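Hey L., structure's done. Input below.
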Amino acid sequence: MSSIYPNFLIIGSQKAGTTSLYHILKQHPQIYMPEKKEVNFFFKDEEYARGPGHYVAHFADAANQLALGEASPGYICHPATPARIHALLPDMKLILTVRNPVKRAVSQYWDNRRHLNEPLTFAQATDAYLSDDYVPGRVGYFSRGVYMHYIRRFLEYFPRENLLVLPFEKLISNPRIFYQRIFNFLGVDEAFVCEDFDKAFNPTEVWKNPFYQLLIRRPHYQKSVPAKLRRFFYWGSTMRFSTPPIDEASRQKLAEFYRPWNDELRQFLGEDLADWD
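Output:
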């Protein structure tokens, strides 16, 4: 039996709707997505070292679907990923979602805060981690948002027509058109619709218990709790969580930091990205 390789990848971005994309595309009868959302074969060195045979095993259950793919949002920023993908699958189609980089950074930061993995305040994190280049193993709250840096890297290996870039905000404002563009790009039935088009697949929740609440509200206390023990604070009832506003100094600092990258992306896409200002 011949190996079955994917013909498209959702390469990012983290905190920009990739979970929703995965679940919607998985429901399309002409698209196959593996049970595991983030395969991370081209992202994690230990996965890549296991070889192509390990990778294609994720697609062993595919039948006669027209499009086979997976969603690993770390692919966009890892410096080795474009060459790795091209070496194995040079005709790959690539889907990238981009989100207002300040809001994306805030979302990732608070995701770590919720999981008790970030002892710094947002202002402190801005001072500590602000960078325009992602380095594997380092905190990438802000480097993950310099999209054009990574797009240029991918375009060194893949033609422009193989890359579909979609603003996350379009998923929120008009999900049906958003998904139709993806279906057209993949060459599958564009008429497919489902009731989950506007569903949030990754809602944000936190625990109500007072011990957890102390650690999330006063993050510096997290340093006193070993990482392996923090999960023991995940108990009891939960509630929906909305991220607090960031301080004005951090907002201005990030707006200035991202401005040239956002302007270049606007020119590249031919879209105004008005919601990013």
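Residues 8-204+242-276 form a domain with the Rossmann fold fold (CATH 3.40.50.300). The beta strands are 8-12, 31-32, 67-71, 93-98, 163-167, 205-207, 238-240.

-- N.
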